[in-house]
Amino acid sequence: MSGGGEWWQCPCPLESVPRVRVCDPKLLDFIREQRPIVITDSKLVESARHWDLEYMEKHMGDCKFTVYESKERVFMFSDEEKNLGNYKFTPTATKRSMTFQEFASEFREAMKSKDKFLYLQQGLNDTVGPTIVKDFVGFNWTWLTDVVKALNWGHLTTNMLFVSMPHLVTPCHYDEQENFFAQVRGTKRVILFHPDNFRCLYPYRYGHPCDRQSQVDFDNPDYERFPKFKDARGLEAILRPGDVLYIPRCWWHLVRSLDELSVSVNFWYMSPPAIAEDIRFPLTASQKVAMMRNIEQMLLTALGSAGEVSDFLRMLVSGRYDTDANHTFRQLEM
Ligand SMILES: O=C(O)CCC(=O)C(=O)O
Ligand SMILES: [Fe+2]
Protein backbone atom coordinates (compact mmCIF):
# COMPACT_ATOMS: atom_id res chain seq x y z
CA MET A 1 0.00 0.00 0.00
CA SER A 2 1.16 3.48 -0.68
CA GLY A 3 2.25 5.72 2.15
CA GLY A 4 3.35 9.33 2.43
CA GLY A 5 1.13 12.34 2.73
CA GLU A 6 -0.58 12.14 -0.63
CA TRP A 7 -4.32 11.60 -0.82
CA TRP A 8 -4.85 7.91 -1.32
CA GLN A 9 -7.15 7.04 -4.19
CA CYS A 10 -9.52 4.21 -3.28
CA PRO A 11 -10.07 1.92 -6.30
CA CYS A 12 -13.83 1.72 -5.60
CA PRO A 13 -16.50 4.39 -6.11
CA LEU A 14 -17.33 6.03 -2.78
CA GLU A 15 -20.18 8.06 -1.33
CA SER A 16 -20.07 9.94 1.97
CA VAL A 17 -21.29 8.57 5.28
CA PRO A 18 -23.98 10.98 6.56
CA ARG A 19 -23.03 13.19 9.50
CA VAL A 20 -25.78 13.37 12.11
CA ARG A 21 -25.93 15.56 15.21
CA VAL A 22 -26.38 13.76 18.49
CA CYS A 23 -29.75 15.46 19.07
CA ASP A 24 -31.12 14.51 15.63
CA PRO A 25 -34.31 12.44 16.13
CA LYS A 26 -33.34 10.28 13.11
CA LEU A 27 -30.15 9.08 14.80
CA LEU A 28 -31.63 5.93 16.36
CA ASP A 29 -33.44 5.03 13.14
CA PHE A 30 -30.15 5.08 11.21
CA ILE A 31 -28.58 2.77 13.77
CA ARG A 32 -31.60 0.45 13.93
CA GLU A 33 -31.41 0.15 10.16
CA GLN A 34 -27.69 -0.69 10.52
CA ARG A 35 -26.56 2.27 8.42
CA PRO A 36 -23.17 3.81 9.19
CA ILE A 37 -23.28 7.41 10.42
CA VAL A 38 -20.85 9.88 11.90
CA ILE A 39 -22.36 11.15 15.14
CA THR A 40 -21.23 14.67 16.00
CA ASP A 41 -21.36 16.63 19.28
CA SER A 42 -21.90 13.56 21.46
CA LYS A 43 -18.96 14.48 23.71
CA LEU A 44 -18.52 10.73 24.15
CA VAL A 45 -14.74 10.94 24.66
CA GLU A 46 -14.49 14.65 25.46
CA SER A 47 -12.77 13.84 28.78
CA ALA A 48 -9.89 12.27 26.78
CA ARG A 49 -9.33 15.28 24.49
CA HIS A 50 -5.89 15.92 26.04
CA TRP A 51 -4.64 12.35 25.38
CA ASP A 52 -1.46 13.03 23.45
CA LEU A 53 1.83 11.15 23.62
CA GLU A 54 3.21 13.21 26.55
CA TYR A 55 0.04 13.02 28.63
CA MET A 56 -0.42 9.30 28.12
CA GLU A 57 3.26 8.65 28.76
CA LYS A 58 2.88 10.41 32.09
CA HIS A 59 -0.38 8.83 33.19
CA MET A 60 -0.80 5.39 31.63
CA GLY A 61 1.13 3.72 34.47
CA ASP A 62 3.36 0.65 34.24
CA CYS A 63 0.96 -1.76 32.59
CA LYS A 64 1.88 -3.44 29.30
CA PHE A 65 0.34 -2.62 25.95
CA THR A 66 0.22 -4.60 22.74
CA VAL A 67 2.17 -2.79 20.04
CA TYR A 68 2.51 -3.97 16.45
CA GLU A 69 5.74 -3.15 14.67
CA SER A 70 6.21 -3.34 10.93
CA LYS A 71 8.46 -2.21 8.11
CA GLU A 72 5.30 -1.54 6.12
CA ARG A 73 2.51 0.93 6.71
CA VAL A 74 -0.16 -1.75 6.37
CA PHE A 75 -1.05 -3.61 9.56
CA MET A 76 -2.99 -6.68 8.48
CA PHE A 77 -4.49 -8.27 11.57
CA SER A 78 -3.72 -11.97 12.01
CA ASP A 79 -4.08 -14.41 14.85
CA GLU A 80 -2.10 -17.65 14.82
CA GLU A 81 -4.50 -19.11 17.40
CA LYS A 82 -7.24 -18.92 14.77
CA ASN A 83 -5.15 -20.92 12.30
CA LEU A 84 -7.38 -24.00 12.60
CA GLY A 85 -6.78 -24.80 8.93
CA ASN A 86 -2.96 -24.96 9.44
CA TYR A 87 -2.29 -22.40 6.73
CA LYS A 88 1.28 -21.28 6.08
CA PHE A 89 1.30 -17.59 6.88
CA THR A 90 4.03 -15.18 7.97
CA PRO A 91 2.67 -11.91 9.40
CA THR A 92 4.37 -8.71 8.27
CA ALA A 93 3.83 -7.08 11.67
CA THR A 94 5.48 -8.29 14.88
CA LYS A 95 3.40 -8.26 18.05
CA ARG A 96 5.23 -6.80 21.04
CA SER A 97 4.38 -5.97 24.63
CA MET A 98 5.68 -2.79 26.28
CA THR A 99 4.82 0.01 28.70
CA PHE A 100 3.42 3.24 27.29
CA GLN A 101 6.69 4.99 28.17
CA GLU A 102 8.64 2.50 26.05
CA PHE A 103 6.12 2.92 23.23
CA ALA A 104 6.33 6.74 23.36
CA SER A 105 10.11 6.75 23.17
CA GLU A 106 10.19 4.22 20.28
CA PHE A 107 7.45 6.24 18.56
CA ARG A 108 9.54 9.44 18.65
CA GLU A 109 12.61 7.55 17.50
CA ALA A 110 10.75 5.92 14.60
CA MET A 111 9.22 9.25 13.52
CA LYS A 112 12.78 10.52 13.03
CA SER A 113 14.49 7.44 11.60
CA LYS A 114 11.47 6.41 9.45
CA ASP A 115 12.78 2.84 9.45
CA LYS A 116 9.78 1.21 11.11
CA PHE A 117 6.13 1.83 11.95
CA LEU A 118 4.37 1.31 15.28
CA TYR A 119 0.70 0.83 16.05
CA LEU A 120 -0.54 0.40 19.63
CA GLN A 121 -3.80 -1.55 19.85
CA GLN A 122 -4.90 -2.50 23.32
CA GLY A 123 -8.18 -3.13 25.13
CA LEU A 124 -8.45 -0.58 27.96
CA ASN A 125 -8.71 -2.09 31.41
CA ASP A 126 -8.34 -0.98 35.02
CA THR A 127 -4.56 -1.54 35.14
CA VAL A 128 -4.00 1.93 33.64
CA GLY A 129 -3.02 4.80 35.95
CA PRO A 130 -5.66 6.64 38.08
CA THR A 131 -5.71 9.81 35.94
CA ILE A 132 -6.56 7.81 32.82
CA VAL A 133 -9.20 5.88 34.82
CA LYS A 134 -10.70 9.26 35.78
CA ASP A 135 -10.78 10.38 32.14
CA PHE A 136 -12.35 7.03 31.19
CA VAL A 137 -15.02 7.34 33.88
CA GLY A 138 -15.68 10.84 32.50
CA PHE A 139 -16.71 9.49 29.06
CA ASN A 140 -20.32 10.36 28.25
CA TRP A 141 -21.62 7.01 29.54
CA THR A 142 -25.04 8.55 30.23
CA TRP A 143 -25.68 9.20 26.54
CA LEU A 144 -24.14 5.88 25.50
CA THR A 145 -26.09 3.80 28.00
CA ASP A 146 -29.38 5.41 26.92
CA VAL A 147 -28.65 4.75 23.25
CA VAL A 148 -27.55 1.16 23.84
CA LYS A 149 -30.67 0.52 25.92
CA ALA A 150 -32.95 2.00 23.25
CA LEU A 151 -31.24 -0.24 20.66
CA ASN A 152 -31.51 -3.31 22.86
CA TRP A 153 -27.84 -4.14 22.26
CA GLY A 154 -26.00 -6.65 24.42
CA HIS A 155 -23.10 -5.80 26.71
CA LEU A 156 -19.99 -3.71 26.03
CA THR A 157 -17.19 -6.21 25.34
CA THR A 158 -14.12 -4.01 24.74
CA ASN A 159 -12.84 -0.46 24.53
CA MET A 160 -9.95 -0.82 22.16
CA LEU A 161 -7.38 1.99 22.30
CA PHE A 162 -5.63 2.72 18.97
CA VAL A 163 -2.53 4.93 18.97
CA SER A 164 -0.99 5.21 15.55
CA MET A 165 1.81 6.89 13.66
CA PRO A 166 0.75 8.91 10.61
CA HIS A 167 -0.38 7.20 7.41
CA LEU A 168 -0.82 3.71 8.82
CA VAL A 169 -3.45 1.42 7.40
CA THR A 170 -5.74 -1.18 8.89
CA PRO A 171 -6.76 -3.10 5.76
CA CYS A 172 -10.31 -3.98 4.83
CA HIS A 173 -12.01 -6.40 7.24
CA TYR A 174 -15.27 -6.86 9.11
CA ASP A 175 -15.99 -7.45 12.79
CA GLU A 176 -18.89 -9.34 14.31
CA GLN A 177 -19.87 -6.69 16.85
CA GLU A 178 -21.54 -3.30 16.79
CA ASN A 179 -18.94 -0.54 17.00
CA PHE A 180 -19.03 3.09 18.11
CA PHE A 181 -15.62 4.23 16.91
CA ALA A 182 -14.61 7.48 18.63
CA GLN A 183 -11.84 9.70 17.31
CA VAL A 184 -9.95 11.33 20.17
CA ARG A 185 -7.01 12.97 18.44
CA GLY A 186 -5.81 13.39 14.86
CA THR A 187 -7.72 12.45 11.74
CA LYS A 188 -8.69 9.09 10.28
CA ARG A 189 -10.20 8.23 6.94
CA VAL A 190 -12.50 5.22 7.01
CA ILE A 191 -13.83 3.40 3.93
CA LEU A 192 -16.84 1.16 4.56
CA PHE A 193 -18.68 -1.48 2.53
CA HIS A 194 -22.13 -2.95 3.11
CA PRO A 195 -22.04 -6.68 4.04
CA ASP A 196 -23.60 -7.55 0.67
CA ASN A 197 -20.16 -6.75 -0.84
CA PHE A 198 -18.99 -10.13 0.55
CA ARG A 199 -18.58 -11.64 -2.91
CA CYS A 200 -16.61 -8.54 -4.09
CA LEU A 201 -14.16 -8.49 -1.18
CA TYR A 202 -13.11 -12.15 -0.99
CA PRO A 203 -12.47 -12.70 2.73
CA TYR A 204 -9.85 -15.24 3.79
CA ARG A 205 -11.41 -18.54 4.78
CA TYR A 206 -12.65 -19.32 8.26
CA GLY A 207 -9.73 -21.11 9.97
CA HIS A 208 -7.12 -18.85 8.32
CA PRO A 209 -5.20 -16.51 10.68
CA CYS A 210 -6.53 -13.58 8.59
CA ASP A 211 -10.14 -14.70 8.93
CA ARG A 212 -12.56 -11.77 8.31
CA GLN A 213 -9.94 -9.80 6.33
CA SER A 214 -10.27 -9.14 2.61
CA GLN A 215 -7.67 -10.86 0.43
CA VAL A 216 -7.73 -7.93 -1.99
CA ASP A 217 -4.76 -5.56 -1.86
CA PHE A 218 -6.49 -2.22 -2.32
CA ASP A 219 -3.30 -0.60 -3.65
CA ASN A 220 -2.72 -3.17 -6.28
CA PRO A 221 -5.92 -5.15 -6.84
CA ASP A 222 -5.50 -8.42 -8.69
CA TYR A 223 -8.62 -8.26 -10.87
CA GLU A 224 -7.87 -11.63 -12.42
CA ARG A 225 -7.98 -13.41 -9.09
CA PHE A 226 -10.68 -11.16 -7.65
CA PRO A 227 -12.78 -10.05 -10.67
CA LYS A 228 -15.85 -9.01 -8.63
CA PHE A 229 -13.80 -6.44 -6.73
CA LYS A 230 -14.72 -4.16 -9.66
CA ASP A 231 -18.31 -4.20 -8.39
CA ALA A 232 -17.49 -3.10 -4.82
CA ARG A 233 -19.25 0.14 -3.84
CA GLY A 234 -18.19 1.91 -0.67
CA LEU A 235 -18.81 4.77 1.70
CA GLU A 236 -16.24 7.08 3.20
CA ALA A 237 -15.95 9.13 6.39
CA ILE A 238 -13.30 11.53 7.59
CA LEU A 239 -13.14 11.44 11.38
CA ARG A 240 -11.84 14.34 13.42
CA PRO A 241 -11.61 14.66 17.22
CA GLY A 242 -15.06 14.33 18.77
CA ASP A 243 -16.57 12.38 15.83
CA VAL A 244 -18.06 8.98 16.56
CA LEU A 245 -18.51 6.60 13.64
CA TYR A 246 -21.14 3.90 13.95
CA ILE A 247 -19.77 0.79 12.20
CA PRO A 248 -22.58 -1.78 12.07
CA ARG A 249 -21.60 -5.41 12.62
CA CYS A 250 -20.35 -7.23 9.51
CA TRP A 251 -19.77 -3.96 7.64
CA TRP A 252 -16.35 -3.99 6.02
CA HIS A 253 -13.99 -1.16 6.96
CA LEU A 254 -10.52 0.03 6.00
CA VAL A 255 -8.93 2.67 8.22
CA ARG A 256 -6.11 5.10 7.43
CA SER A 257 -4.58 7.53 9.92
CA LEU A 258 -3.78 10.85 8.32
CA ASP A 259 -1.72 13.15 10.50
CA GLU A 260 1.00 13.24 13.18
CA LEU A 261 -0.58 11.13 15.89
CA SER A 262 -3.94 9.45 15.86
CA VAL A 263 -5.73 8.30 19.00
CA SER A 264 -9.07 6.48 18.81
CA VAL A 265 -11.15 4.47 21.25
CA ASN A 266 -13.81 2.06 20.09
CA PHE A 267 -16.83 0.70 21.93
CA TRP A 268 -17.59 -2.84 20.81
CA TYR A 269 -21.03 -4.11 21.76
CA MET A 270 -22.65 -7.48 21.36
CA SER A 271 -25.57 -7.41 18.94
CA PRO A 272 -29.09 -7.83 20.33
CA PRO A 273 -29.59 -11.46 21.31
CA ALA A 274 -30.99 -13.44 18.37
CA ILE A 275 -34.29 -14.90 19.52
CA ALA A 276 -35.40 -17.58 17.06
CA GLU A 277 -38.99 -16.29 16.78
CA ASP A 278 -37.72 -12.77 16.01
CA ILE A 279 -35.61 -13.77 13.03
CA ARG A 280 -37.28 -12.47 9.88
CA PHE A 281 -36.86 -13.99 6.45
CA PRO A 282 -35.31 -13.32 4.04
CA LEU A 283 -32.18 -12.87 6.13
CA THR A 284 -30.29 -9.59 6.06
CA ALA A 285 -26.82 -9.45 4.45
CA SER A 286 -25.11 -9.45 7.85
CA GLN A 287 -27.17 -12.45 9.02
CA LYS A 288 -26.10 -14.25 5.85
CA VAL A 289 -22.45 -13.50 6.65
CA ALA A 290 -22.96 -14.92 10.15
CA MET A 291 -24.62 -18.03 8.66
CA MET A 292 -21.77 -18.55 6.17
CA ARG A 293 -19.26 -18.37 9.03
CA ASN A 294 -21.24 -20.93 11.03
CA ILE A 295 -21.36 -23.28 8.05
CA GLU A 296 -17.61 -22.89 7.41
CA GLN A 297 -16.87 -23.53 11.06
CA MET A 298 -19.09 -26.61 11.15
CA LEU A 299 -17.49 -28.03 8.00
CA LEU A 300 -13.94 -27.46 9.22
CA THR A 301 -14.73 -29.13 12.54
CA ALA A 302 -16.57 -32.04 10.95
CA LEU A 303 -14.21 -32.66 8.03
CA GLY A 304 -10.94 -31.87 9.76
CA SER A 305 -8.97 -30.03 7.09
CA ALA A 306 -9.25 -27.07 4.73
CA GLY A 307 -8.64 -29.39 1.75
CA GLU A 308 -11.57 -31.63 2.75
CA VAL A 309 -13.83 -28.57 3.14
CA SER A 310 -12.79 -27.41 -0.32
CA ASP A 311 -13.60 -30.82 -1.88
CA PHE A 312 -16.89 -31.03 -0.05
CA LEU A 313 -18.04 -27.57 -1.16
CA ARG A 314 -17.00 -28.25 -4.75
CA MET A 315 -18.95 -31.51 -4.75
CA LEU A 316 -21.98 -29.67 -3.40
CA VAL A 317 -21.80 -26.78 -5.86
CA SER A 318 -20.12 -27.92 -9.09
CA GLY A 319 -22.51 -28.34 -11.98
CA ARG A 320 -25.43 -27.80 -9.59
CA TYR A 321 -25.41 -24.43 -7.84
CA ASP A 322 -22.80 -22.69 -10.00
CA THR A 323 -25.12 -22.78 -13.01
CA ASP A 324 -27.99 -20.45 -13.72
CA ALA A 325 -31.06 -21.94 -12.00
CA ASN A 326 -33.41 -20.86 -14.85
CA HIS A 327 -31.18 -22.51 -17.41
CA THR A 328 -31.44 -25.81 -15.53
CA PHE A 329 -35.23 -25.49 -15.28
CA ARG A 330 -35.54 -24.73 -18.97
CA GLN A 331 -33.56 -27.84 -19.76
CA LEU A 332 -35.79 -29.92 -17.52
CA GLU A 333 -38.94 -28.56 -19.12
CA MET A 334 -37.79 -29.52 -22.61
O1 LIG B 1 -8.50 2.32 13.72
C1 LIG B 1 -8.08 1.30 13.18
O2 LIG B 1 -6.97 1.23 12.66
C2 LIG B 1 -8.94 0.06 13.14
C3 LIG B 1 -10.24 0.18 13.87
C4 LIG B 1 -11.13 -1.00 13.69
O3 LIG B 1 -10.95 -1.80 12.81
C5 LIG B 1 -12.27 -1.20 14.62
O4 LIG B 1 -12.47 -0.43 15.56
O5 LIG B 1 -13.01 -2.18 14.41
FE1 LIG C 1 -12.43 -3.38 12.81
From TrEMBL:
Lineage of source species: Eukaryota, Choanoflagellata, Craspedida, Salpingoecidae, Salpingoeca
Gene3D superfamilies to which the protein is assigned, alphabetical: Clavaminate synthase-like, Jelly Rolls
Domain JmjC: 118-286
Organism name: Salpingoeca rosetta (strain ATCC 50818 / BSB-021)
Gene Ontology CC terms: cytoplasm; nucleus
Protein name in the entry: JmjC domain-containing protein
GO molecular function: [protein]-asparagine 3-dioxygenase activity; ankyrin repeat binding; peptidyl-histidine dioxygenase activity
Record-linked SMART domains: JmjC
Listed GO biological process terms: negative regulation of Notch signaling pathway
InterPro entries: Cupin_8, FIH-1_dom_II, JmjC_dom, RmlC-like_jellyroll
